[in-house]
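Working notes for the structural subgroup meeting. M.R. asked for a predicted model of this chain before we commit to crystallization trials. I am recording the input and output together here so anyone reviewing the notebook later can reproduce the run.

Input as submitted:
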Amino acid sequence: MNTDTEKTQQCSTSVVQNARQTERGVFYCKECGKNFVNMARVKRHVTHVHLKKRPFKCNICNKNFGFLCNLKTHEKNIHGQDIKMLPCTLCKKQFKTLGSLQRHTDNVHHKIKNYACLYCKKPFGYQHCLMIHMKCCKKIPQGLVNK
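Returned structure, recorded in token form:
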């Protein structure tokens, strides 16, 4: 039987060798076929889902979780601990982290767009929105894109 260290090394090697970028610009997990936007997400998935690494621990019942969001959901649903939400002072939308609130304020209210499409130069406030756009945009012939 494989030790955890051997399993981690085998799985890490497997991810690097087999989680290549597909024609659609996505990476996939060899174990289950799930698609991801980058190699870092594949590695995180393999570590928490397939290797069963659980670094987040509930302080009340000592149950371990692979993802922080799962721990927070557990704390709220099982132990009745609500996460303190931070409201936007401009629209009252609520956020779990100060970083999320700041990104929202910058992107939505101050119209700061730090990401731009490599093909048509359209600006975006969030990187994930840019990535979705670029998957479609790169299929459009360059002469047809409005600049």
